[in-house]
Amino acid sequence: MLDVILLLSLGMFIISITMSIYRIIVGPTIPDRMLALDVVSYALTVVMGIIAVISGSPYLIVISFSLALWFFIGALYVARYMEGEQIGD
Amino acid sequence: MIEMIELVIDLLLAFCVVLTAAIVYTKDLLLAIVLAGAEGVLVATVFYLLLAPDIALVQVAAGVGISTAFFIVGLRKIGRREE
Amino acid sequence: MVTEIFLALGVFLLVLGGALSIIGAIGLLRFPSYFVRIHAVTVSVIGGSVVPLIGVAFLSYGIHGQDGVVTSLGALGTAAFIFLTAPVSSHAIARAAARMRIPREPLEHDHLEEDGR
Questions:
Q1: What pLDDT, in 10s, does the model give residues C26-76?
Q2: Per-residue model confidence as pLDDT tens for chain B (83 residues)
Q3: Domain spans in chain B, listed from the N-terminal domain onward
Q4: CB-count exposure of residue A4 (10 Å: 0-12, 13-18, 19+)
């Protein structure tokens, strides 16, 4: 019962990631793609947490925290570059 | 349960193929950097689902954070558009 | 008794988070322009990542007992970190997008231009 619920929520997050990947590929401007990458990164953080609960090993949750931290730094770098350039598209 | 996780791995690798094709065919270098960051996140999750968390840790740090920072520092030197 | 309460609470938060994540992704697909899509992404990040990570923390303690305390505390720390830093990065990208003159379809007021900044 509990395994079925965990796999069901895993499937829901995979559906959400699929829609956001579509927005990454066809999105008109760069900030749209960064927004969709935001959704993909944090949904994959939750997927990693679900796999850590299924596996039961205490070493697997560290990657989730590391992904959130490094994506924050990457988003700030891209935002700094876009604010410094100031031309369209 | 194992079949579901293998299906997730196949789906993420298919997304990686599509993102790599988009990186090759684009002319905007900032767009290529953003797409490379997205592909780094997906590849790190594939390593994680194959139960190799140490390689996933290195892939997250290198593919999402450090390579984006270095490419953007280089992009300030050479300009954004590719001819 | 405590274990059943933790399992029920964890399952409820996890399924609620999955539903909110799908709702946010549908909004990300169908909304017309960037500054409208920020609203959907707010639902999808805070409701779809912080809430299920708290559910993952409850579930880990409920399933594995004392062995799952490390995973539980790690999930709670990740939830707190996302709750603090996701608005910062989203605001930075939105400020850069406001400077970049990207198309904004249903525009009624632009207070940033009216103030002259």
A1: 998 888 888 888 888 888 888 889 999 999 999 998 888 888 889 899 999
A2: 788 888 989 999 999 999 999 999 988 888 999 999 999 999 999 999 998 889 999 999 998 889 988 888 888 888 777 76
A3: 2-78
A4: exposed
CA distance C54 to chain A (A): 10
In chain A, which among 22-41 make CB contacts under 8 A with chain B?
Answer: 24-25, 30, 33-34, 37, 40-41
Among B81, B20, B73, C105, smallest CA distance to A28 is for C105
Alpha helices in A27-85 (DSSP H): 30-55, 62-85
The verdict on B71 touching A (C-beta cutoff 8 Å) is no
> Which chain B residue has its CA at the smallest distance from A54's CA?
B1
User: Residue B54 CB: number of other CB atoms within 10 A?
Assistant: 11
- Residue of chain A minimizing CA distance to B60: A67
> Are A78 and B34 spatial neighbours (Cβ–Cβ below 8 Å)?
yes
Yes or no, beta carbons of B31 and A63 under 8 Å apart = no
Q: List the single best residue of B27, B45, B46, B47 to mutate versus A (max A Cβ within 10 A).
A: B45
In this complex, is the C-beta atom of C27 within 8 Å of any C-beta atom belonging to chain A?
A: no
Chain segment C97-113, per-residue pLDDT in tens: 887 777 777 777 777 77
Residue C113 lies inside a defined structural domain of this protein: no
* Helical segments of C31-116, H only: 34-42, 51-64, 69-99, 111-114
- Total domains in the fold of chain A: 1
Average confidence (pLDDT) over C66-90: 90
Of C18, C28, C71, the CB nearest to A9: C18
Enclosing domain of residue C57: 2-99
pLDDT digits (tens, 9 = 90+) for A51-85: 888 888 888 888 998 998 999 988 888 888 887 76
Question: What pTM value is reported for the model?
Answer: 0.90
ipTM above 0.85, yes or no: yes
